[in-house]
Design a protein that fits this description.
rod-shaped, mainly alpha, 151 residues
């Protein structure tokens, strides 16, 4: 069965973007509070967790917003030399590219799974509706046959 509106599973509106920005703020706050302990290690982990959560609840576009906001924030605050946009080492560049790639892959997988889940829900509703219509038609035919037999 072809379901064309399975892309509309996510809640749209300003609320999604508000939670995306708020989630970036929370991820930054958590990472910043752990900065003395973590130093330059795992600079984007909390941001990626936020991105996956936003993708899970609000879809692809708000999660892209979290990626685009998180990368410069994490690069500025959590990659040595801290609090600057100086050129990172090749290792830092590789880490950032891998984090961004992981984030995009995770968002794509979550989006695909949510669309498939929503499609399954829609197909189930259509199937249930068809079953009810067939049941009503069957009862109508049964009543019509009973009336014929009586006459």
């Amino acid at each position: 069965m072809q379901i064309k509106n399975s892309k509309r599973w996510a809640h749209s509106g300003i609320q999604a973007y508000f939670f995306a920005i708020f989630g970036v703020f929370v991820a930054f706050s958590i990472r910043y509070s752990l900065h003395d302990f973590l130093q330059g290690n795992i600079p984007m982990t909390f941001f990626i967790l936020n991105t996956i959560i936003i993708a899970l609840f609000y879809g692809f576009i708000p999660s892209l917003l979290t990626i685009f906001l998180s990368v410069p924030i994490a690069f500025f605050f959590f990659v040595p030399p801290f609090d600057s946009y100086d050129m990172p080492t090749p290792q830092d560049g590789f880490v950032f590219i891998s984090y961004i790639l992981i984030a995009f892959i995770a968002v794509a997988i979550v989006e695909w799974l949510q669309r498939e889940r929503y499609k399954a829900v829609l197909i189930s509703k259509v199937s249930d509706s068809n079953f009810r219509l067939l049941t009503q038609a069957s009862l109508s035919l049964k009543k019509a046959r009973e009336l014929e037999v009586r006459d």
